[in-house]
Amino acid sequence: MNTTATMELRPLRATDAAALAAIDRAGSGRARGDHFARRLAQLAREPAAFAAYAAEGRGELAGFVLARLYEGEFGAQRREAALEAIGVARPGEGVGPALLAHLAEALRAQGVAALTTEVDWRERALLAFFARSGFELAPRLVLARPVLASPAGEDALADAEARDRIAVRSMARADEAALVAIDRRITGRDRSAYFARKMDEAMEESAVRVSLVAEADGHPAGFVMARVGLGEFGQTEPEAAMDTIGVDPQRAHQGLARALLSQLLVNLGALRVETLRTEVGWNRFALLAFLERCGFRPHRRLALERPLG
């Protein structure tokens, strides 16, 4: 039975956190209340960074959808939104498709080019739902490696020498201009807005700061931007995402990228994070080769996208 005609679609509010957690727990069997509370608090502080809606009927929450707007993550060159969570109280009533359609229309009006998400390939019902909703495989690969040991059994890349030789430290807000300049030399694009937002995430939103800077002659020469998350895309295991890694082309082939990644793994291990994940365009062959040498392998999650143009 389709009951969407009696539903009101409205923006999510911070007061919806408990209802979101209950719907999610009933559908998945997982408890992610803290994740939703944090996300809705962020939504209240920075509403322009999210697109999040609730379906309400008879005074109760019948479903929700939550997406975050991005530009620049994982090397993307367009404005995208990542669908982090969707849930319904009673499947089969058309609430999920109605929420996705409403979300897509709202994002399209904001000039967002695509809606992306990640799904475990074993979640067949969810994959079928996304396929019916217009999603297709994205031209990106999801890669991951264990934090404490690579598939080859190496401990944190076995690269203590690079960590000892190259100065690697925590990222600071004062690094922003230098990182933008390095990224411009790498990509040929000015991504100041992206780095300003990522710096806000690293300095203000993250409970644990894990982004790093490598120095040469006392100045930033490389960086890795990462975040520790629990709850995005339905995940429950302790996992970190690496959004960006870059080295000044003038300092290429000096071991900075390996030192950054090695120190990141050491730090994540101390936090008991189990997995480091990233996404890479399928045709970024040099970066894929580097990550393969560093122990990254295909993840069981698939990157999906729904074009909105």
Could you please describe the fold and organization of this structure?
The chain is α+β, with helices and mostly antiparallel strands and 309 residues long. Helices cover 34% and strands 31% of the residues. It has a seven-stranded mixed β-sheet. A seven-stranded mixed β-sheet has the order 8-9-10-11-12-7-13. α1 (17-28) runs antiparallel to α2 (33-45) and α6 packs across α7 (192-205). The longest helix has 15 residues, at 95-109. The mean pLDDT is 85.
What topology emerges from the helices and strands here?
Elements: E1 8-11, H1 17-28, H2 33-45, E2 50-57, E3 60-71, E4 79-88, H3 95-109, E5 114-120, H4 124-132, E6 136-137, E7 140-146, H5 160-165, E8 167-170, H6 176-187, H7 192-205, E9 212-216, E10 219-229, E11 239-247, H8 256-270, E12 275-281, H9 285-293, E13 297-298, E14 301-307
Parallel strand pairs: 4-5, 11-12
Antiparallel strand pairs: 1-2, 2-3, 3-4, 5-14, 6-14, 7-12, 7-13, 8-9, 9-10, 10-11
Helix pairs in contact: 1-2, 6-7
Outline:
This protein is α+β, with helices and mostly antiparallel strands and 309 residues long.
Strand order of the largest sheet: 1-2-3-4-5-14-6
Number of H- or I-type helical stretches: 9
CA distance, first residue to last residue: 31 Å
CATH top-level class of the largest domain? Alpha Beta
> What structural class do helix, strand and pairing data support?
alpha+beta
**Spans where pLDDT lies below 50 across 5 or more residues:** none
Please identify, by name, the CATH architecture of the largest domain: 3-Layer(aba) Sandwich
The percentage of residues in β strands lies in 25-35%
**CATH-derived topology of the largest domain:** Aminopeptidase
CATH superfamily membership of the largest domain: Gcn5-related N-acetyltransferase (GNAT)
Name the overall outline.
elongated
How many domains? The number is 2
Average pLDDT, rounded to a whole number, is 85
Count of beta strands:
14
Taken in chain order, the helices and strands follow as EHHEEEHEHEEHEHHEEEHEHEE
Helix coverage percent of residues?
25-40%
Rg, rounded, reads 20 Å
